[in-house]
Amino acid sequence: MPVSRRSFLGGGLAAAAVAVTGTPLLAGCASDKKNAAAANAAVKLPTYTRYGEITPDLPGTDVVLDGFLKYPANPVKAIAEAPGDGKPITFMTNIPGAIPPAVDKNQFWQELNKRLGSELQISMASNDEYKDKFATRIAGGDLPDILNIPPGTPQVPGLLKAKATDLTEHLSGDAVKQYPFLANIPAEYWKGCVFNGAIYGVPVPRGMSRTSLPLYRADLLAAKGIKDPAPKNFQEFLDLCKELTAPKENRWAWTRVPTSYLRMMLGMPNQWKEEGGKFTSVYEAQGNEEALEAARSMVAAGVVNPDTFSAKAAQRKQWFNGGIASFDYDSFVAWNQYYADNTAGDAFAVDMLDVPGFDGGDGKVWMGAALNNVTAFSKDSQHSVETLLKVANWMAAPFGTEEYLFRKYGLPGRHYALEGTDPVPTKAGVVETGIGLQYISDSTLALYWAGRPDVPQNQHKIQTAIEKRLVYDASYGLYSDTASKQWGQLTGALTDLENQIVQGKKPVSEWAAGVKTFLSSGGEKIRGELEQAFADTAGK
Predict the structure, then answer these.
(1) Dihedral over Cα of 479, 364, 281, 236: its sign
(2) What CA–CA distances, in Å, run from 374 to 58, 172, 195, 472?
(3) Beta partners for residue 281, in sequence order
(4) CA 154 to chain centroid
């Protein structure tokens, strides 16, 4: 099962990487990199052993996620002994929401420490601040026992070799069966944890849950007599957007310009495409000019909130939840989050739009990033590798287990109230449970929303519909040193140009020059490194 990921590409931490050893990490000749790629391909990935104690209401596949209409009445206690060793375990991570109360004021965290059998000491930072905090800790050599390595970290192989524990003997092949919930993570997700010819981390899997398409406010569309919208081409899609736009009423169809969706209509690559060993980026692929012209036409038609180009993501999400916009381009994870943030009452309803071909037929769908992050263990940790892996295994217990119920929802009465068998979070639950445990490890996500069986039903329906039309990122599992340092800068310049074009400030014809600069400034070198890595791993 091929799975795409948001590879470790981008810049911002190069100085920290150099500081690990005093020299640029991964500096070396081409033959070293070739040997590394071949060695990575030779690693035997952990044997996938599906946990079979929980029966979903809506069975999934290797790609489609399992769905549950309600939480199982009798959750399985899957792990008999506390995984900790009685000594404090340190962990550093980002926190996507508000920073939660400290442990002395957090009953969830206190109970977690009891269940783990070790005090979990967590150093937290917001999403926006985490990369800088990570870089500072790396540069200072002050590493926690468990480390969340964020996407965009440069020169990861050298960083891991210098600072992290090689987990191969503990996880490769059948060895992972000592940790049944790590074994329950499909082997493809482990590809993103292989560097230097070894397994250097534990995956935090996402895949289909991070696949993005237009989410829409089904309740707002229904109020206009529109049920189950299914435009057959771009023109019908644009007409639908116009119908949902009323600027005088402070309503627009879209929170932002859905350029990725337009590229999917045109069947364009998901990040990188490989054919016959040759790699093509989405930015240089045929169809960009047509996608940009279509995006311009949406902005010109006034169907996108005009404040979008200066707004932050949080504000756009408020537009969607508040009914100012009917569509937002986002993932299955965001779908659930919108229900969590709902202030519109029981009528609030979200669904997802499939992608037609630009001129008819079916469009393609970009598979979501396989990994949220990789979690590594410090070489200098005083804990045994087995203890840290037991903790990760406990964090990966899947939906339907008692461990999952506590990990995601906390304690009954304090953090959630039961409605039937469904745990409905309280305000204290929302505030106290968000301490970042999912970034140590996690199971593949389940389709579920407490008290709303229609949510997993709709999610499962659209996943089943798009399964055969998914397009995967061909760079997944391949490493480009140049991309690790320059990807964010290179693609950021193209994003800025794209925004200028869709606003009508620059002509579409300037895209070709932008791509030429992208290629000459590093894109061509990245392509070569990916092609070489692909060739080195072929047949291994």
Answers:
(1) negative
(2) 29, 16, 11, 20
(3) 272
(4) 18
